[in-house]
């Protein structure tokens, strides 16, 4: 099959978990220690080559700060995939992830593909959520779980490849 398929992906998760950093790494192969907290939401596009086809990701990076929470719905309601991110060194961000999941279940598209990113893998020495627990939660909701690091680029492109394989299987 030729031509360009497009996938709308939304990033959700608490403030500071590294959503914007993951997008910056994936789209521009860059990382900022002093990344600004997102206001509202921001868009970035990026294409990846898969054997004989090109897939364009239309990525919506939402703001994790509580005051923007109600905006997220505008971005996930017509998305094909969501990456719910937590910071592996912050237990409360894992609880935040579950909250985003429940919200997606209630208000999101029925067939949305969900991936869980345990970000900041480079800080694994201070990991606060046992990876088995995260994996178990992910499998209980049919989500792919992957550790990532926007800082080192660990697992980042692979996460988007996982999404494409699930959204557009051939
Ligand atoms: P909001 O926009 O407020 O929702 O936050 P966000 O989830 O977009 O977080 P952001 O990408 O702005 O990153 C927050 C902080 O974590 C920044 O200081 C980043 O440099 C840092 N950070 C992001 N990803 C990583 C990572 O993989 N490893 C480490 N060590 N730091 C990271
Ligand atoms: Mg951000």
UniProtKB/TrEMBL annotation:
Alphabetical keyword list: Nucleotide-binding
Keyword Isomerase: no
GO MF terms, alphabetically ordered: GTP binding; GTPase activity
Record-given protein name: Uncharacterized protein
Source organism (scientific name): Blepharisma stoltei
């Amino acid at each position: 099959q030729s031509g360009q398929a497009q996938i709308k992906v939304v990033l959700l998760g608490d403030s500071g978990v590294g959503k914007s950093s993951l997008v910056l790494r994936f789209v521009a192969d860059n990382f900022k220690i002093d990344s600004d907290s997102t206001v509202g939401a921001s868009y970035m596009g990026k294409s990846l080559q898969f054997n004989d086809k090109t897939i364009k990701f239309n990525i919506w990076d939402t703001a994790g700060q509580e005051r923007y929470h109600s905006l997220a719905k505008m971005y996930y309601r017509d998305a094909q995939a969501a990456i719910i991110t937590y910071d592996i060194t912050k237990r409360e961000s894992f609880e935040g992830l579950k909250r985003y999941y429940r919200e997606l279940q209630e208000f999101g598209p029925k067939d949305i593909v969900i991936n869980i990113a345990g970000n900041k893998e480079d800080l694994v020495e201070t990991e606060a959520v046992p990876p088995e627990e995260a994996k178990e939660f992910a499998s209980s909701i049919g989500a792919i779980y992957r550790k990532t690091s926007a800082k080192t680029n660990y697992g980042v492109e692979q996460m988007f490849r996982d999404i494409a394989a699930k959204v557009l299987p051939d």
